[in-house]
Design brief:
44% helix; single chain; seven-stranded mixed sheet
């Protein structure tokens, strides 16, 4: 005979285990909310970082944005000049590293021009020396003192030219500069064997354009002449195109931070100090140690005292009294006096340990013959509030104890 269990609950039967167990949903949600509140700051920072990275990735078009780059169409780029040179048949080779630039120059031999623009001085003296003499013409844009020393020793820096709206006239016999007639002012001035585009009111020995005797090294003092937004001004394009397009191949080299040699990192600051600094520091350290030994506090010998130490009760009482006095605790001192007086009177009057204050007052009044209210005032009245009243009150307690002892 089989027994079937119906789905209806039997009246009076205990509920099932599943029905008795609490639902895990509310507890899980509570823990999740607690964790979210705990980590909400880090979650917000992570979301902000993700948004910044996403905007950076989406906003990066991949175009070259380096100044005077031949592939940069921005106002500070030089794509316009590079495009015109390519249309004129010049083979432009962009070098992204020193090794690549040297390889391109060596492959093309004497039919190449080197354009070097390194305003941050990423190349060192040795690297500049390796570039010297590899190209038929070297065009240096706003060169530094180190670049002039290695690549153009006959040309020197002569200061800054203010960037104004006025034009600088060629006023020289150099064919490239004479074809341009005039260029924009600004940048730097240089002195050399051939100087063009001198600023107004100058002696004509300096200018924005300088070259050596054979034109193998040319210095352009204004990088804005090559930029897209200034190439069409005055004779900027004529000067730039004739200077850069004199050979079949143009190696366009813009050094980057990757060109810095691995061993050219910052030096140890201690290496910049003179040699006498280290001995002086050692001597100062020795003097400091001697001064500490001389003026330092010296502890005396240890005091040997037998244990345990016995302290007289009068000393502890005097010390406690001084503490009460310094703290102006008259009420606490009065409470201590009253408790001690009641304890001694209870012992002398042979009262039990559980006696009350009223029992001590009545027994002391009967023993001394004093009125009950007078004894009650001393033992159960308001404590004194001033030091003078406290002294007088303690003397009266002592007199009461002496009368009880004498009786």
């Amino acid at each position: 005979m089989s027994t079937s269990v119906s789905g209806d609950a039997v009246p009076g039967a205990p509920a099932s285990a599943a029905a008795q167990a609490p639902s895990p949903g509310p507890a899980r949600n509570s823990r999740l909310k607690t964790r979210l509140r705990t980590w909400r700051l880090w979650i917000i920072l992570a979301l902000v970082l993700c948004v910044v990275v996403l905007l950076r990735v989406l906003g990066d078009s991949g175009d070259d944005d380096a100044a005077l780059s031949p592939e940069n169409p921005a106002p500070s780029g030089a794509q316009a000049a590079a495009s015109i040179l390519k249309e004129q048949g010049v083979d432009i080779r962009r070098a992204d590293s020193l090794e690549e630039a040297m390889g391109l120059l060596q492959d093309n031999g004497s039919q190449s021009t080197l354009l070097l623009y390194d305003p941050n001085s990423f190349l060192g003296q040795d690297q500049l020396a390796e570039l010297d003499g590899l190209a038929r013409r070297q065009v240096l844009v706003e060169p530094t003192f180190a670049q002039l020393s290695e690549l153009a020793p006959g040309i020197r820096s002569a200061g800054v030219l203010p960037g104004t709206d006025t034009a600088l006239d060629a006023d020289c016999d150099v064919a490239d500069a004479a074809a341009a007639e005039s260029i924009d002012a600004g940048g730097y001035a240089f002195r050399g064997p051939a100087v063009c585009f001198a600023p107004p009111e100058s002696d004509g020995t300096l200018g924005s354009y300088a070259a050596d005797d054979d034109g193998g090294v040319v210095v352009l003092g204004n990088s804005r002449l090559l930029a897209n937004d200034a190439l069409a001004n005055r004779g900027n394009a004529a000067l730039v195109l004739r200077t850069l397009g004199s050979t079949d191949t143009l190696v366009w080299y813009l050094p980057t931070i990757a060109d810095i040699p691995a061993g050219a990192g910052p030096e140890d600051p201690r290496a910049l100090l003179p040699g006498w600094v280290d001995p002086l520091l050692v001597w100062l350290l020795v003097v400091a140690v001697l001064a500490m030994l001389w003026r330092g506090r010296r502890l005396g010998p240890l005091a040997v005292e037998p244990m345990p130490v016995v302290v007289r009760s009068a000393e502890t009482a005097e010390g406690r009294a001084r503490l009460y006095q310094d703290g102006r605790a008259s009420d606490r001192a009065a409470a201590t006096f009253r408790a001690a007086a009641l304890s001694r009177l209870a012992v002398r009057l042979r009262l039990g340990p559980g006696c009350s204050t009223e029992m001590v007052v009545r027994a002391a009044a009967e023993s001394t013959g004093r009125p009950v209210h007078e004894v009650d005032r001393l033992l159960n009245g308001a404590p004194p509030v001033t030091e003078a009243a406290l002294v007088k009150w303690s003397q009266e307690l002592q007199a009461l104890e002496e009368e009880v002892t004498a009786s």
